[in-house]
Write a structure and sequence with these properties.
By secondary structure, the chain is mainly alpha-helical. It contains 6 helices and 4 strands; from the N terminus they run βααββαβααα. The chain has helices spanning 4-12, 27-36, 55-64, 70-77, 81-93, 105-123; strands at 2-3, 42-43, 46-47, 66-67. The protein is globular and about 55 Å long.
């Protein structure tokens, strides 16, 4: 048996910044990532038979052990269920969202930077770090 969080942290420590290219100009993916951070996600803390699996199988097993309300997610991001599900599959595959309700640190940093730039441009104000 393995711990969900420690297994997930292994993936979080191997973020691939190149995946950010997918969200640069895709508002749908950005909207889903914003909503994902506001979802209640539950997961089994202990996972059986994960230690002998490869990375792809471990990633899939982590996701199969987490649960969330996909209708609420669709509502939060303002998309239909099918569009939301497609975006979730893409973000999962790119490992930009995590099965504990968080997003990659590089994606979060990118989105914060974008928001600050928008605020500065539209309001002419500087934002704090």
């Amino acid at each position: 048996m393995s711990d969900f969080i420690s297994t997930l942290n292994l993936f979080k420590s191997k973020e691939q910044i190149e995946s950010l290219l997918a969200i640069l100009h895709d508002k749908t993916l950005q909207d889903v990532m914003i909503a994902w951070q506001n979802m209640k996600v539950s997961f089994n803390k202990e996972i059986e038979n994960i230690d002998n699996l490869g990375d792809h199988e471990r990633w899939d097993l982590l996701w199969s052990n987490s649960k969330w309300d996909s209708n609420l997610l669709s509502t939060l991001c303002g998309l239909g269920v099918n569009d939301t599900n497609r975006a979730i599959l893409r973000l999962k595959g790119l490992r930009l969202i995590y099965p504990d309700g968080t997003i990659s640190t590089s994606a979060a940093q990118y989105m914060r930077t974008e928001v600050k730039a928008i605020i500065q441009k539209n309001l002419g104000t500087k934002t704090s770090k």
